[in-house]
Amino acid sequence: SMNIDPATKLMELFNGKIASFTNANGAAGQLNDFLGPYQQFLTQQLQAHLASTSSLSSTA
Fold first, then answer.
1. Which residues contact 25 (CB under 8 A, 6 or more apart)?
2. Interatomic CA distance for residues 52 and 44, integer angstroms
3. Within 13 A of 21's CA, how many CA atoms are on the CB side?
4. Source organism's superkingdom (predicted)?
């Protein structure tokens, strides 16, 4: 399995980072403080991307 999907690999790395983060601190609260704004940012980016692609396709 040398041919791994980059997005899958990225998620594995990200999840690994999160796991080690929680193990090191032993506090889920700190993790939520970190993930909250980050997830919000990702959601905004995704919505903006979807909005731009849908507007592009509707004009085509």
1. 31
2. 12
3. 14
4. Eukaryota
- Token pair 């939520």 is found at 32
Amino acid 58 reads: S
Q: In the 8-state DSSP scheme, what is residue 41?
A: H
pTM of the model: 0.37
- Asked whether 31 and 22 are in contact (CB, 8 A), the reply is yes
- Asked whether the CA dihedral 49, 55, 58, 60 is positive or negative, the reply is negative
d(CA 11, CA 20) in angstroms, rounded, equals 14
What are the tens digits of pLDDT across the range 21-60? 555 555 566 666 777 788 888 888 888 888 887 776 655 5
